[in-house]
Amino acid sequence: MHRPGRPYEIPDYELLTTVLSALLWREKNGSICMITDRVGERYYRSLGLASVWDDGIRCELDAIPHTVDPSTFWAAGKLYALEKVPAPCVMMDTDFIVWNDLRDRLSASQLSVIHREPLEPDIYPAPSAFCLSPSYAFPADWNWETPACNTAFTYFGNEALRTSYVSQALDFIQAARGRDGLIYMVFAEQRLLAMCAEAMHIPIDALSTPEELFQSEQKDFTHTWGFKQAMQDYPKAREMFCRQCAARLAHDFPEYAKVCARIPTLHKYF
User: Fold this and answer.
1) Are 124 and 148 in contact (CB under 8 A)?
2) Region 134-141: what's the mean pLDDT?
3) Are 23 and 92 in contact, with CB atoms under 8 Å apart?
4) With DSSP H G I counted as helix, E B as strand and the rest as coil, what are the percentages for the chain, rounded to 5?
5) Cis ω on the peptide bond leading into residue 70 (within 30° of 0)?
6) Per residue in 206-240, pLDDT tens?
């Protein structure tokens, strides 16, 4: 938690996206679980949302070592969660929504990601930019020119890749001595995956492109990552988005809309 001593809570727009994302995945693609820690589990249960995840809420993240700096590795929970779930499996951010059935496409893939990312040097710098334990060495077979993978949505159909990726990502996290909250996390989560897959000769299926995700009409996927700052800065944009989510919940999942409407921070949108 980045705010010790203060109650844990998720912003209204994030909470609505989380619920809509999980329910749509269940409707279109199958079961889903929430992997969090005891604080997160208590929070969702206190709001009456535990049944949103038909495969349950799992507190696997209580086991994250205290040596992992949460400011540097703010998304490390994804990797520690993935360590506990064998392939085939999907790792999906709570701010990501899948609108359609992906089962046929995913079943034909060993690795699918939402899109590839160019190696912008400010985000994906050269190996020399990292301060690491003297005992750590990057694998010699990694190709540092291959584009990174955006892992907001990732499907692992190959168990050997999943275990290798997680093992190497966690080794890197433990070896890190630098404290840059951008380059270390995106390396462990996104660039490392692309290099690991290429070294294992596993093709990467990109489901979309950044350009497609920013189109006004999003028929297949929605990722609110780039819109969050605008919602924080502009109350009207935030209210409009929340009302759209609430309307979609009321139309498609009325029983859960009633649950959300009883949550004090969400009530005004229903």
Assistant:
1) yes
2) 97
3) no
4) 45, 15, 40
5) no
6) 999 988 887 656 689 999 988 888 999 999 999 99
